[in-house]
């Protein structure tokens, strides 16, 4: 496995957990491709920043049980983790928020180029999340 890529992805998730959006966004390529779980594709660091601002308004999340893997050449990586979250404000098209807590297995795939994250694709079971916040 490529240690540089492993370190990059670890730093990305550490910044996320610490709420350090300056470091978090600084690890992305300017033209980063973000494939949103069961959603659209966004391109560019500015769009990713807007997405994260919306996420922080609606959700409080912390990632645990992180496992990160990378290809030997370091151009691809994957991460598996558990999201511990709290649903703070109602997100469009989703159930009403009442501070519900959830625990959700998730994963992500990365493309890395020039020491920056070029693409990230996030995956989790949306129906599981809906069931948890609707209970």
Describe, in plain words, how this protein is organized in 3D.
The structure is a single chain. By secondary structure, the chain is of the alpha+beta class. The protein has a single domain (about 5-135), classed as Roll (Nuclear Transport Factor 2, Chain: A), CATH 3.10.450.50. About 35% of the residues lie in helices and about 40% in strands. It has a 6-stranded mixed sheet with strand order 2-1-6-5-4-3, with helices on both faces. The longest helix has 16 residues, at about 5-20. The model has no long low-confidence stretch (mean pLDDT about 95).
Summary of the model, kept short:
With 135 residues, this protein is an alpha+beta fold.
Which helices and strands appear, and what pairs or packs with what?
Blueprint: H1 3-18, H2 21-26, E1 28-35, E2 41-43, H3 45-58, E3 59-70, E4 76-87, E5 101-113, E6 116-124, H4 126-134
Parallel strand pairs: 1-6
Antiparallel strand pairs: 1-2, 3-4, 4-5, 5-6
Outline the biggest β-sheet: 6 strands, mixed
Number of domain modules: 1
Amino- and carboxy-terminal Cα gap: 41 Å
- Which series of helices and strands comes N to C? HHEEHEEEEH
CATH architecture: Roll
The total beta strand count reads 6
Low-confidence stretches: none
State which percent range the strand residues make up: 35-45%
Structural class: alpha+beta
Question: Could you say what the CATH topology is called?
Answer: Nuclear Transport Factor 2, Chain: A
Average pLDDT confidence is 95
Assign an overall shape: globular
CATH class: Alpha Beta
Radius of gyration: 15 Å
């Amino acid at each position: 496995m490529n240690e540089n890529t492993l370190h990059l992805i670890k730093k990305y998730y550490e910044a996320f957990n610490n709420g350090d959006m300056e470091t978090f966004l600084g690890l992305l390529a300017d033209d980063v491709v973000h494939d949103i779980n069961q959603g659209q594709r966004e391109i560019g660091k500015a769009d990713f920043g807007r997405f994260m601002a919306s996420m922080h308004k609606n959700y409080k999340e912390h990632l645990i049980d992180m496992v990160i893997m990378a290809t030997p050449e370091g151009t691809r990586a994957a991460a598996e983790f558990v999201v511990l979250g709290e649903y703070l404000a109602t997100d469009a098209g989703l159930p009403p928020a009442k501070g519900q807590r959830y625990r959700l297995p998730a994963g992500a795939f990365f493309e890395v180029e020039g020491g920056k994250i070029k693409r990230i694709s996030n995956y989790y079971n949306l129906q599981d999340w809906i069931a948890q916040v609707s209970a």
